[in-house]
């Protein structure tokens, strides 16, 4: 499994504590029901599927993607913000605060984010209707996989497509020509979870 999280937390300048120390400190303050729920959620959580959203306009869409990721058992989400456009120069807190249950990391460029994902061992899939794009059901989601969702107006960038290992699309059989970004992300994550459960149990 790719290693996304650091097992230490800075609690004061120059002072860090380990994840186990956090657990040991907080456990006596929680009810048994709460502890059991946290243990169940953590046992079902995976970091092997990594949603990446690129230069999105609507923070509501980001929050919706985060909620779906958490609900489907995924532990992290990466955000690419386009710092050349004033509309994207919102604080990191705006993105990281979209969901408190995920490890949200913010990157200032597509290249930085994608190369980081590859360094961590992910295959990278861009959601893009290219001539060689495959249905999301043909992606091997049992492998560590990062998938990139583009923004609401232009989709994924040419840079993301060039850096990706593959392109994939969510199948459609109706008259509309696209899904809402957060809906498409939820469908992809559901398919990834379905395939992983079917193959890995």
From TrEMBL:
Q: Which domain of life is it from?
A: Eukaryota
Domain (tRNA/rRNA methyltransferase SpoU type): residue spans on this chain: 52-190
Pfam families reported in the protein's UniProt record: SpoU_methylase
Keyword list (alphabetical) reads: Methyltransferase, RNA-binding, S-adenosyl-L-methionine, Transferase, tRNA processing, tRNA-binding
* Coiled-coil blocks: none
User: SUPFAM superfamilies under this entry?
Assistant: alpha/beta knot (SSF75217)
Instruction: Provide a GO biological process annotation.
Output: tRNA guanine ribose methylation
GO molecular function, one example? tRNA binding
The record's section on InterPro entries has: Alpha/beta_knot_MTases, SpoU_MeTrfase, TrmH, tRNA_m1G_MTases_N
Name the PANTHER family for this protein.
Answer: RRNA METHYLASE-LIKE, TRNA_RRNA METHYLTRANSFERASE SPOU TYPE DOMAIN-CONTAINING PROTEIN
Question: What name does UniProt use for this protein?
Answer: tRNA/rRNA methyltransferase SpoU type domain-containing protein
Question: What is the species of this protein?
Answer: Chlorella variabilis (Green alga)
């Amino acid at each position: 499994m790719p290693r996304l999280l650091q097992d230490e937390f800075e609690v004061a300048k120059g002072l860090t504590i380990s994840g186990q120390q956090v657990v040991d400190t907080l456990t006596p303050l929680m009810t048994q029901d709460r502890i059991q729920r946290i243990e169940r959620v953590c046992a079902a959580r995976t970091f092997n599927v990594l949603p990446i959203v690129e230069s999105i306009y609507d923070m509501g869409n980001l929050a919706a993607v985060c909620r779906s990721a958490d609900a489907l058992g995924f532990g992290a989400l990466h955000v690419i913000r386009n710092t050349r456009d004033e509309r994207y120069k919102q604080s990191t807190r705006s993105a990281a605060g979209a969901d408190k249950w995920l490890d949200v990391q913010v990157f200032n460029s597509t290249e930085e984010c994608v190369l980081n994902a590859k360094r961590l061992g992910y295959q990278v899939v861009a959601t893009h209707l290219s001539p060689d794009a495959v249905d999301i059901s043909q992606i091997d989601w049992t492998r560590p996989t990062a998938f990139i969702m583009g923004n609401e107006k232009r989709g994924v960038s040419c840079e993301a497509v060039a850096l990706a290992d593959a392109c994939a699309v969510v199948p459609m059989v109706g008259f509309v020509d696209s899904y809402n970004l957060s809906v498409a992300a939820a469908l992809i994550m559901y398919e990834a979870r379905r395939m992983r459960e079917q193959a890995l149990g």
